[in-house]
Q: What sequence folds into this?
C-alpha cells in the first residue's frame, strides 16, 4: 500500500451491538471509494460510526491513516464528514442557523462543491424562518447531504444517501457523489448498491 495513502484498517476487529455480532475478528482495509453492503439491521450504520471515530471496537483495532499520517481522537473526527439519520443537525435551528452551527466545526469546499452551491443545486426550497423540525424528511436529507458533501475534508461517509429523496433528489446526489468521489475517500453504507454505490466502488459486505 502507498505509504501516503488515506485508508482505514481493521485488525482482529470485533464489534457487538447488543446481542448481535457485527464483526468477528475481522481483517479489512478500506481505501478509495467503498460501498458497505448489508441488509437493514446488519450493522452498516455501526460500521460507519466506527469509521467516523464515534464508536470503538469491542476487541481488536481500527486505524485511520490520512495521507500517510495516523489520526487519533478528535483529530480523526474533524477529517471526516458524515450524513446519516443518527447524526443530524439540531432540529430547532433554521437553515441559516444550521449553516452557522456547522461552520463552527467545519469549513465549506470552494466553488461548485461548497455548501451554498450544493444546496442550490439540490433544489432545496424552505421558508428561512422555519426550523428543521418543520421541514419534510426529503428537505432535511438534502441539507444533511449538502453539508457532508460540501465540507472540506478528505473522507466523506454517507449512510443510505438516497433515503427520503424523490427522483430529482436522487439524480442530484448521485451526480454530486460522482463529481466528488475522485478527489476524496468516500464510503457509502447501502442495501441498494445499484442506486447508491458510486461508480468504481469496491465492496465490503456484512
A:
Amino acid at each position: 500500500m502507498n505509504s501516503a495513502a488515506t485508508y482505514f484498517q481493521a485488525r482482529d476487529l470485533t464489534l457487538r451491538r447488543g446481542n448481535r455480532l457485527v464483526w468477528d475478528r475481522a481483517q479489512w482495509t478500506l481505501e478509495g471509494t467503498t460501498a458497505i453492503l448489508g441488509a437493514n439491521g446488519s450493522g452498516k450504520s455501526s460500521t460507519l460510526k466506527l469509521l467516523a471515530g464515534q464508536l470503538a471496537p469491542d476487541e481488536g483495532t481500527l486505524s485511520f491513516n490520512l495521507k500517510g499520517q495516523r489520526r487519533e481522537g478528535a483529530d480523526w473526527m474533524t477529517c471526516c464528514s458524515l450524513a446519516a439519520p443518527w447524526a443530524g443537525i439540531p432540529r430547532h435551528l433554521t437553515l441559516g442557523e444550521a449553516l452557522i452551527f456547522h461552520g463552527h466545526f467545519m469549513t465549506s469546499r470552494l466553488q461548485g462543491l461548497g455548501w451554498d452551491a450544493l444546496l442550490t443545486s439540490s433544489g432545496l426550497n424552505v421558508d428561512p424562518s422555519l426550523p428543521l423540525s418543520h421541514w419534510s424528511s426529503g428537505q432535511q436529507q438534502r441539507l444533511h447531504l449538502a453539508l457532508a458533501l460540501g465540507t472540506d475534508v478528505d473522507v466523506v461517509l454517507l449512510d443510505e444517501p438516497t433515503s427520503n429523496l424523490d427522483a430529482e433528489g436522487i439524480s442530484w446526489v448521485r451526480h454530486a457523489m460522482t463529481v466528488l468521489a475522485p478527489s476524496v475517500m468516500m464510503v457509502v453504507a447501502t442495501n441498494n448498491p445499484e442506486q447508491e454505490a458510486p461508480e468504481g466502488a469496491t465492496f465490503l459486505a456484512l
Remarks:
- The radius of gyration is 17 Å.
